[in-house]
């Protein structure tokens, strides 16, 4: 039995993940996930925050923005994820931002519930 390992390099194994907001703009991220359901929004925010954090560790030739540019973005996304999960306003969150995010959260939950009802109806 001859078994050959396929030839790969380290670069082949690294899959470049594209961020939703290449410029680390929280408003841009929110707009892009506006019509998604609740769980998908949290999932995408988690992926986006992870990629923003990883920018600190990428080589200078592989990143477009300096790592400091996305630190605040990653923190904003983490706060957003907490708010989406638990619905609790952070003491640091401005009231106008809270109102906007509350409406966003409610719309995402509504999308989620509508999708669940459609799935439930199709099973019966």
Summarize it.
It contains five helices and no strands. By secondary structure, the protein is an all-alpha fold.
Describe the structure.
The chain has 124 residues and is mainly α. The chain has one domain (19-123). Helices cover 59% and strands 0% of the residues. It contains five helices and no strands. The protein has helices at 10-13, 26-32, 38-54, 71-86, 95-123. The radius of gyration is 19 Å and the shape is globular.
Task: Itemize the secondary structure elements and their pairings.
Blueprint: H1 10-13, H2 26-32, H3 38-54, H4 71-86, H5 95-123
Provide the β-strand percentage band.
under 5%
Task: Give the N-to-C terminal Cα separation.
Answer: 51 Å
Give the oligomer, counting copies of the same chain as homo and different chains as hetero. Answer: single chain
Low confidence ranges: 5-15
Total E-strand runs: 0
Average pLDDT metric: 81
Rough outline:
globular
Helix proportion: 55-70%
Based on CA atoms alone, the radius of gyration comes out at 19 Å
Q: Give, in order, the helices and strands.
A: HHHHH
The domain count comes to 1
- Give the structural class: mainly alpha
Major beta-sheet overview: none
Which descriptors would you attach to this protein?
single chain; mainly alpha; 5 helices; 124 residues
């Amino acid at each position: 039995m001859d078994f050959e390992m396929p030839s790969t390099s380290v670069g082949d194994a690294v899959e470049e993940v594209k961020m939703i907001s290449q410029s680390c703009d929280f408003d841009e991220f929110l707009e892009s996930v506006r019509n998604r359901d609740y769980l998908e929004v949290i999932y995408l925010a988690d992926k986006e925050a992870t990629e923003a954090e990883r920018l600190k560790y990428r080589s200078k030739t592989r990143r477009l923005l300096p790592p400091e540019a996305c630190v605040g973005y990653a923190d904003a996304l983490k706060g957003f994820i907490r708010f989406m999960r638990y619905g609790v306003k952070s003491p640091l969150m401005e009231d106008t931002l809270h109102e906007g995010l509350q409406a966003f959260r409610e719309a995402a939950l509504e999308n989620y519930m509508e999708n669940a009802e459609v799935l439930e109806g199709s099973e019966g």
